[in-house]
Write a structure and sequence with these properties.
single chain; alpha/beta; globular
Length: 255
C-alpha cells in the first residue's frame, strides 16, 4: 500500500511539474529603419530582456530592399525556435519581405513603419497622404562612388523632423549617429508581403512627420492589424520616446 501511494505521489509531482512548465519565449528580432541605428531600440530591448525575451537588434544595411531583406532573412534563419519580427519605418518593408519562407516567424510588429503591398515603395506610401515633411528636412545627398546617393536628415532639422518628443541633447546624438539610406532603397518596389499571411500589430504616433499618421492608419487597416496603438503626439521614433508601449505590443504579439 505504501509503495502504491508513493508511486501515485511521484506521478502526481511529475505531472504537476509538466503542467506548469512554460515553453521558451520567442526571440524578438528588431529591425531599425532609415536615419536610425540599432541603438534606437535600447529602451525596448531593456524591457523585453527584463521580461525574459531573447532579443536581436539587427543592423539593417539600408542599401536596397532585396539586399536588406536577404540580410535580415539570414539572421532569422540562424535562430532556432519561434521569432517575432519587428520593423521601424523603412524596416517595415524589410521585414515584410524577410519573413517570407521562414516558418518560425510567427508574427510581425510595425513600429511607425511601412507595410507596402506588392508593387509599392515606401516613397509611394509616404506621398499617398498629406502631412509628411521629410523631403524638406534632408541634407544635400552624398554621392557614392559606386553610383547613386546616400540620404541623411539635416542635423539642424533632425530633432523637429524625426524625434520631436525626445530630449534635445539625446536627439543631437541620434542625429550625429544616424545611418544613411540610399535613395534607391526608398523607391524599390515590394514583392509579395508577409503580412498577408502572418498576423500583424501596429503602433505609431500622431506627431509623426516622416510618415503621416493617416498613411500609417491606412496600412494598419489594410493589413488587418490585430491591434493598433496610436500614441498621441508621439514622433517617428515612438520606440525611443515610448519604449513601454512598444514593448507591451511586441509582447502581446509574442503570445
Amino acid at each position: 500500500m505504501f509503495k502504491f501511494a508513493a508511486a501515485v505521489a511521484l506521478a502526481g509531482a511529475l505531472f504537476s511539474g509538466a503542467a506548469v512548465a512554460q515553453p521558451a519565449k520567442p526571440t524578438v528580432v528588431l529591425v531599425h529603419g532609415a536615419f536610425a541605428d540599432s541603438s534606437s531600440w535600447n529602451g525596448v530591448v531593456e524591457i523585453l530582456r527584463k521580461d525574459g525575451f531573447p532579443v536581436v537588434a539587427a543592423a539593417n544595411p539600408l542599401r536596397s530592399v532585396a539586399n536588406d531583406a536577404a540580410y535580415v532573412s539570414d539572421v532569422v534563419g540562424s535562430i532556432a525556435g519561434p521569432v517575432v519580427l519587428v520593423g521601424h519605418s523603412y524596416g517595415g518593408q524589410v521585414i515584410s519581405t524577410a519573413a517570407n519562407g521562414h516558418d518560425n516567424v510567427k508574427s510581425l510588429v510595425y513600429v511607425a513603419a511601412f507595410a507596402p503591398d506588392a508593387g509599392e515603395s515606401v516613397a509611394d506610401l509616404a506621398g499617398k497622404f498629406p502631412g509628411g515633411t521629410l523631403s524638406g528636412a534632408l541634407a544635400a545627398p552624398v554621392k557614392l562612388s559606386s553610383g547613386g546617393v546616400d540620404l541623411y536628415i539635416d542635423q539642424a532639422k533632425f530633432h523637429d523632423q524625426f524625434a520631436s518628443d525626445v530630449p534635445a541633447e539625446q536627439a543631437a546624438l541620434m542625429a550625429a549617429g544616424q545611418r544613411p539610406v540610399t535613395e534607391a532603397a526608398l523607391t524599390d518596389k515590394s514583392g509579395a508581403p508577409a503580412w498577408k499571411k502572418l498576423p500583424s500589430w501596429f503602433v505609431y504616433g500622431t506627431g509623426d512627420k516622416n510618415i503621416p499618421a493617416a498613411a500609417l492608419g491606412f496600412m494598419a487597416e489594410r493589413a488587418g492589424s490585430k491591434r493598433t496603438v496610436v500614441v498621441d503626439g508621439a514622433s517617428h521614433v515612438v520606440m525611443v520616446s515610448h519604449p513601454d508601449k512598444v514593448a507591451e505590443l511586441i509582447e502581446e504579439a509574442a503570445k
